[in-house]
């Protein structure tokens, strides 16, 4: 990833396509692999709440409570994104960030020392794969590296909940 590579990896939810969230060319490749318009923003994973401050100019106080109290994976969409590839952000300058609690993705973020793109491992518009075995061969061939971990799991993990924080701490639920 440090050289712009794209990976296929297990996250705290479903398998994801990932890359350096600060590398505009790597982010472009992820959009290309997914056949997805770059006007649809993608979320990023970080390993610690402290990192949120680096990627968001003004984190609302309620975000810290939500991060601390959540019992399942939660992606929060923040206004005022910074220090990320411009083509990763939504048109309004916002970004979705999830603080991962899963051991592997947390360690990956920690070792990489940057936010990592995390978007479902599917072609845009198709269902998200419930396990590694359901990921299309097109996706597997398109990435530079496939993580050899948790490939045998057959469970049906769910995508994260998504909320958007608005002015004055208003919470808008995007996906439960």
Low-confidence segments: none
Distance between the termini: 31 Å
- Radius of gyration over all CA atoms, rounded: 15 Å
Query: Which percent range fits the helix content?
Result: 10-25%
- Structural class, by secondary structure, is alpha/beta
Mean pLDDT: 93
Q: Roughly what fraction of the amino acids lie in strands?
A: 15-25%
The total beta strand count reads 9
What coarse outline follows from CA principal-axis ratios? globular
Topology:
Elements: E1 7-10, E2 15-18, H1 24-34, E3 43-46, H2 49-55, H3 61-69, E4 74-78, E5 95-99, H4 103-112, E6 116-120, H5 137-142, E7 145-146, E8 161-165, E9 171-175
Parallel strand pairs: 1-7, 3-5, 4-8
Antiparallel strand pairs: 1-2, 2-6, 3-6, 4-5, 8-9
């Amino acid at each position: 990833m440090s050289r712009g590579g794209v990976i296929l990896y297990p996250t705290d939810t479903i398998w994801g396509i990932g890359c350096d969230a600060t590398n505009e060319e790597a982010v472009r490749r992820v959009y290309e692999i997914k056949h997805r318009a770059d006007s649809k923003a993608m979320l990023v994973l970080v390993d610690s709440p402290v990192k949120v401050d680096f990627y968001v100019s003004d984190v609302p106080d309620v975000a810290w409570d939500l991060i601390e109290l959540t019992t399942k994976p939660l992606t929060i969409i923040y206004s005022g994104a910074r220090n990320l590839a411009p083509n990763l952000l939504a048109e309004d300058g916002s970004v979705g960030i999830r603080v991962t609690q899963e051991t592997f993705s947390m360690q990956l973020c920690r070792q990489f020392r940057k936010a990592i793109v995390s978007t479902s491992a599917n072609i845009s518009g198709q269902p998200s794969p419930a396990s590694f075995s359901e990921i299309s061969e097109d996706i597997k061939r398109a990435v530079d590296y496939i993580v050899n971990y948790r490939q045998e799991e057959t469970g049906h993990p769910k995508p994260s909940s998504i909320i958007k924080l608005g002015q004055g701490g208003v919470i808008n639920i995007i996906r439960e």
